[in-house]
Amino acid sequence: MPTEGQQKLLEELKNSLTRALPEGRITSGDYARTGCHLEVRLSDAGMRRIAMVMKDNRFYLETITAVDFPGSFELIYFYSTCHDDICRVIARIQILKDATPHTVSAVYPGAIWLEREIYDFFGIRFLDHPDLRRLLNPDDADYFPLLKTFGKTKLTEEIDDILC
Amino acid sequence: MLNIKTIDDTSINERVYQLNLGPQHPSTHGVLHLLLKLDGEVVVAAEPIVGYSHRGHEKMAENRIWEQFLPNTSRIDYLSGLIYNQGYCMALEKLCGIEVPERAEYIRVITSELNRISSHLLGIMAFVMDIGAFTPFLYGFDDREHVLDLLERVTGSRLTYCYNRFGGVRNDIDQEFCDGTRRFIARLRGRFKDYHNLITENIIFIKRTRGVGIITEETALEFGVTGPSLRGSGVNYDVRKNEPYSIYPEFDFEIPVRKEGDVMARYQVRMAEMEQSMNIIEQALDNLPQGPVRSHVPRFIDPPAGDIYFAFESARGAVGYYIVSDGTRIPYRIKVRTPSFSNLFVLTRVLPGNFIADAIATLGSIDVVVPEIDR
Fold first, then answer.
1. Where residue A34 sits, what CATH number does that domain have?
2. Which of A61, A135, A145 sits opposite B56 (nearest CB)?
3. Does the CB of A113 have a partner CB in chain B at under 8 Å?
4. How far A23 CA lies from chain B's nearest CA (Å)?
5. Complex ipTM, two decimals?
6. What are the distances in angstroms from CA B193 to CA B135, B197, B199, B268, B271?
7. N or C: fewer beta carbons within 10 Å in chain A?
8. Which residues in chain B are contacts of A36 at CB distance < 8 A?
């Protein structure tokens, strides 16, 4: 059950998010099942505005990740508070495979490495990123390891079939 | 406005020279490469270069069944493997709705907290050795040996544990383990006096750490710093308290916080945290319930389609598993949020303007585990 402070925080946050992102879809998350209190679905242009709203509310950026779905990537931003009223907000952005989303590193400098990692593993290029290079893979690598097409051979597909 | 200095910075003139610290260097804690730009003794810019021990755990996860990824988790951060083990099991138990017997939860907390103590002992002592004190390192490793012996007794391994299972733990603990743990706690409490004499009150240590490598609260939040490094900067945030998981709400323990944000503050937080871990273990041993240690779970688990973010506190900070399941026996995506990743990146902001000797102290005080960053 959310505490009183949590509920107040969530209400305030919902209001300021609706003001800043009229086009975004804000839903309450099922914390017991998914571990998040608030879920926001938005378009590419909204990710900087949401980052600014979260920073004003003293949230920190836990991590950013991407998931390779057929036909599109989903970029996922995890924001969380670091005080007693814990509140985790997940912002999801569906982008096309060749899209170049905006960076949030101007708002959260910690995102510089997080976005570099996503570029490194998925090949997603962030617009206006100050330092978009490989991070964990070799500088001269010509592959993006976390794409679902990477490393798939006939043998691995057969193994997958057996396992499933 | 960003003021992070990267290596392409144009403010560099011929007075400035580059120093490659690592990837093989005694004070870099694993294969970490730190590219420093120096003006005399002063650091102008610092750039950590990581990836030397990248093994592709996240890709491996997509090529094996849920159970097979379990041993991988303890190799992400090899110093707090049991905590990562516990977190992965708890995330999947939440996703699948698996019940865990109470005794198993207690055993998980006892082993995880022992693991936290062993990790902090290594972290602190290696850090103290970095800034020139060799003796405490040997004392610390002597104590750590006792923890490893205890954990070896129940888990069968000394470093890369794989003890937690979905729905509980692999095997029960015995009376000898409980007695040994109590003896170890009594012993470590006595040793703390020596540590404070040797390190905390040592004038050289104080001069090397007070007011050095300050991370302000603002910077810490911008960079997503967590764990003892964040609590050393005055933020009272520990996942065990703020977002309780397992049976942590049942224990009476405090979260040590220091306001200074310097190297000394981070050291003091770690020392105090070990004492709190000992309190938790004692309470858990006192209230250890009887019963099974593992609930009945099918040999292969089939989580429903969906996703979950599960956060927990390792020895270095807030860890998060983001798990996407498409309803098959193979994970669709597992993302691990590792604390060292953000904790190391903050050095690009903290180091410039400091002396190179202080840079070593700052790096040691953050207590990074490089395989955790590289994954």
1. 3.30.460.80
2. A145
3. yes
4. 24
5. 0.87
6. 15, 6, 10, 14, 12
7. N
8. 309
Mode of pairing for the β-strands spanning B16-21 and A25-28: unpaired
Q: Which two tokens stand for residue B158?
A: 């000394």
- Would you call B342 and A110 a contact, using CB atoms and an 8 Å cutoff? yes
The owner of tokens 């406005």 is B1
Mean pLDDT of A134-152: 85
List, as ranges, residues 332-361 from B with C-beta within 8 Å of A.
Answer: 332-333, 335, 337, 341-342, 345-346, 349
Question: Are B315 and B274 contacting, i.e. CB atoms less than 8 angstroms apart?
Answer: no
Chain A positions touching B221 (Cβ under 8 A) are: 58, 60, 82
Residue located via tokens 């057929």: A70
- The pLDDT tens digits of the residues spanning B5-41 come to 555 555 556 677 888 887 777 666 778 888 888 888 8
Q: What is the pLDDT of residue B179?
A: 92
Q: Among B23-27, B181-185, B233-237, B342-346, name the one with the lowest average pLDDT.
A: B23-27
Determine contact, residues B191/B143, Cβ cutoff 8 Å: yes
Number of H helices and number of E strands within chain B? Answer: 15, 8
For position A100, what pLDDT does the model report? 86
Angle between helices B102-130 and B356-366 (to 10 degrees): 170
Q: What Å distances lie between residue B261 and B202, B211, B235, CA to CA?
A: 20, 8, 10
Q: Assess B153–A contact: CB distance below 8 Å, yes or no.
A: no
- CB burial class (10 A; 0-12, 13-18, 19+) of residue A140? exposed
Closest CA to B307 of A44, A81, A76, A118: A76
Contact A121 B58 (CB under 8 A): yes
Q: Which of A34, A61, A137 sits opposite B307 (nearest CB)?
A: A34
Query: By residue range, what is the domain housing residue A130?
Result: 4-163
Angle at B72 between CA B68 and CA B76, to 5 degrees: 160
> Taking CA B311 as the corner, what is the angle to CA B225 and CA B84, rounded to the nearest 5 degrees?
95
What are the tens digits of pLDDT across the range B156-183? 888 888 899 888 888 888 899 999 999 9
